[in-house]
Amino acid sequence: MSGVWMGMPAFPEAAREALADGQLRANLRTATGTIRAKRAAVVGERADWERLRLAGRAIKDRALRDLDTYLVRLEERVTEAGGVVHWARDAAEANRVVIELVRAAGSDEVVKVKSMATQEIELNEALADAGITAHETDLAELIVQLGQDRPSHILVPAIHRNRSQIRDLFRRAMPGAPADLTDDPVALAAAAREHLRRKFLSAKVAVSGANFAVAETGSLVVVESEGNGRMCLTLPEVLISVVGIEKVVPTWADLEVMLQLLPRSSTGERMNPYTSTWRGVTPGDGPREFHLVLLDNGRTAALADDIGRDALRCIRCSACLNVCPVYERTGGHAYGSVYPGPIGAILTPQLRGVDADPVSASLPYASTLCGACYEVCPVLIDIPKALTHLRGQVVDAHRGKPSAERLGMGLAAWVFARAGRFAAAQRLAALGGRVLARKGRIGRLPGPLAGWSDARDAPVPAEETFREWWLKNRGESR
């Protein structure tokens, strides 16, 4: 996870810029509020919702506990069904496999199903460097691609744009878009459909991810709302699926639970409009070749962490984003990663490493720890607990390194070590406070301390310290 996101500022700086965009905040407030209401309605219909969440957690935990066994079983079943399995330790290996397969098919373009895994490894950019054009077919991903933009939401990548902005983008960047295109959703969808139809009918290779991979049968599952994904999964001659190793579930019966949790948590629907499953190849029906690329890219490192491994339960529903007060005000771009919001704040530092870059080090702090994300997570990931755990890792990673905070704490330790030093510091603070005071309050502290007083009231220190009072009234020093 570098390239496109490389050089992004740490979360506090990026969030400050996002907060200044009133249109962005309005778009996010409207979209997340709508999704929250829909989710609450369909979840409220299920008296057994908490039991479903417990079952979902148990399924994912069982899969992660014996992940090696289930991955080998998945490989065996896919191979038996005529597919080919490739193992990729990192993004570079996964991209190399896909590029070689596309070239072997004699193609210089691919159509793509919406996939977080391929965004994570920045496959589109790798394909472009190899002279291969990738066409996103999910409507929201198409919007992001046409705008040369970054996704800002797991479920709705273009959530930061409203209909008028999308209309203007289509007019400007979509080949064949009507000059009089309106911002009516039906008209926008029709324009995208006309644009994509030519791609579906001509592409020889498709690339997908998967929501789930079933070890028992070798089946892969993709859920979607538009049907464009199914066109990619069935029409091209070659299908390549890039899937994170944590997406495996043990049995076909486990899907009964997961397919009740996912649509309710993500789109606020009882079931997805399109649920596609496939295994291997079938002569005369669908792609002639199927390749499964199983992606690690930091997942085994996360699996080794007793607390951090819980993030691998994630089924990418985005419910945590839709309830997060931080995400609703900053949007997804501020997180500097393909995985935004609360789940991104714990997943990205684990996949990259908490000390990999300033973004990863800042993300565990991109939260109020209010717990709303934990309350809605369909597989009960305790995100606040993971955030505090990762904050500890950030501190440990920077322990001993020079910093303003370390210098300040060292100075404080020196002052507190002797009563005389502490008394002198109190007198100095009282004198300085009276100099800076305005109407009983310190308006702004000098230097780096201004960041503290800008967000808080700073009372003027008392003219007489407690130690001085005690000495005067009790006649002894402590």
Automatic annotation (TrEMBL):
Gene3D superfamilies membership: Alpha-helical ferredoxin (1.10.1060.10), NagB/RpiA/CoA transferase-like (3.40.50.10420)
Keywords, alphabetical: 4Fe-4S, Electron transport, Iron, Iron-sulfur, Metal-binding, Repeat, Transport
NCBIfam families according to UniProt: LutB/LldF family L-lactate oxidation iron-sulfur protein
Protein name per the record: L-lactate dehydrogenase complex protein LldF
Entry annotated with the keyword Iron-sulfur: yes
Molecular-function annotations in GO: 4 iron, 4 sulfur cluster binding; metal ion binding
Taxonomic placement: Bacteria, Bacillati, Actinomycetota, Actinomycetes, Pseudonocardiales
Positions of the 4Fe-4S ferredoxin-type domain: 305-334
Source organism: Actinokineospora iranica
GO biological process, one term: lactate metabolic process
Domain of life: Bacteria
InterPro entries referenced in this protein's UniProt entry, alphabetically: 4Fe4S_Fe-S-bd (IPR017896), 4Fe4S_Fe_S_CS (IPR017900), FTHF_cligase-like_sf (IPR024185), Helical_ferredxn (IPR009051), LUD_dom (IPR003741), LutB/LldF (IPR004452), LutB_C (IPR024569), NagB/RpiA_transferase-like (IPR037171)
